[in-house]
Amino acid sequence: MKHPALFLDRDGVIIENCSNYVRSWADVAIFPQAVAALAAVRDCPYRIVLVTNQSAVGRGLISQATAEAINDRLLAHVRAAGGRIDAVYMCPHGPDDGCDCRKPLPGLLLRAAEELDIDLSRSVMIGDALSDVMAGQAAGARAVLLRTGRGGDQERLPGAADLPPFLVYDTLADALPAVIESP
């Protein structure tokens, strides 16, 4: 039987966005409410999957190994706080590279669904940008926009009204209890 998933963007959802890119662990500012929310849903039946665009790699600002080390350290922090993230899928490409994994395209979610036996129709994509909402919708998942990170500004963009309906919450701690349901 396929599993539902909670697909989570990283920057603006679990950690603060960094205007000059997250280039090292020193740039990481974790949202305490997000880590607490992940601990609270540790035993839920959903796979919890981080899906993140990291164009700093494609732009040559950091190496792939550095990006992976930052993600690994974040997962260790979440685990130490009692939370769970089951997998990380990262697009390392720049915006002009023409890949199929950079959100708003659904490539990361589709790959995770295939590799982790995920039922996309029972899954949720949670992010702080319209590109996250679009990726979730393109993959066939429900979409949630958080007002943390860029979400408050993204919600007011003219393009937001042109998308199919999506849910909006202030924080990950607000969203998770509301979107998790029995599979």
Automatic annotation (TrEMBL):
Keyword Metal-binding: yes
Keyword Zinc applies: yes
Binding site for Mg(2+): 9, 11, 128
Any one Gene Ontology molecular-function term assigned to this protein's record: phosphatase activity
Marked site positions, Contributes to substrate recognition: 102
EC number: 3.1.3.-
Cell compartment(s), UniProt: Cytoplasm
Annotated Zn(2+) binding sites: 91, 93, 99, 101
Top-level class of the enzyme under EC nomenclature: hydrolase
Site feature location: Stabilizes the phosphoryl group: 52, 103
GO cellular component, one term: cytoplasm
Cofactor section: Zn(2+); Mg(2+)
GO terms under biological process: carbohydrate metabolic process
Alphabetical list of Pfam families matching this protein: Hydrolase_like (PF13242)
Main localization, broad class: cytoplasm
Active site (catalytic residues): 9, 11
Keyword line: Carbohydrate metabolism, Cytoplasm, Hydrolase, Magnesium, Metal-binding, Zinc
NCBIfam families assigned: HAD-SF-IIIA, Histidinol-ppas
Family named by the database record: Belongs to the gmhB family.
Name the record gives this protein: D,D-heptose 1,7-bisphosphate phosphatase
Organism in which the protein naturally occurs: Candidatus Promineifilum breve
